[in-house]
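Slide 14.
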Amino acid sequence: MTMMGNEAAARAHDSASGRDPNAILPDDLWPGLTGLSPRECEIVRLVANDRTNKQIAKTLGISVWTVSTHLRRVFAKLDVHSRAGMVGAVVELMNQR
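Slide 15: predicted structure.
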């Protein structure tokens, strides 16, 4: 399946299940609990929903370079070194509250 096919399948699944794809990480988590900016929170949510940097850039109307910059800043703030580590750290913060 192509990247676009994966994205379309993900949207169809989210739509069919009636769930908001951003709901994996709830709004009340942001930004106070994590110390992340609203834009960084958007990017974390999209990464948690298995979106690539290119897909995130297209969704938010920003460049892939800007997405990468946001991710580097999030990694530094959360003291992690990967996308999986970032999502794991945010989920852990959520579970601690």
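Speaker note: The helical segments are 3-17, 38-48, 53-60, 64-78, 83-96.
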